[in-house]
Amino acid sequence: MKTDFEVLAALRNDSSVQRQLMIESKQYNTDQIRAWIRRRTRDLKGMFFVIESNGPCGFVQLTQIDLKTGSGDLGICLINSARGKGIAKIAMRQLEKRAMEKYRCKKFTLRVLRINHRAISFYKKLKYKIIEIKRRHHFDGSRWRDVIFMEKRLR
Question: What would you report as the CA-atom Rg of the chain, rounded to the nearest whole angstrom?
Answer without folding.
Answer: 15
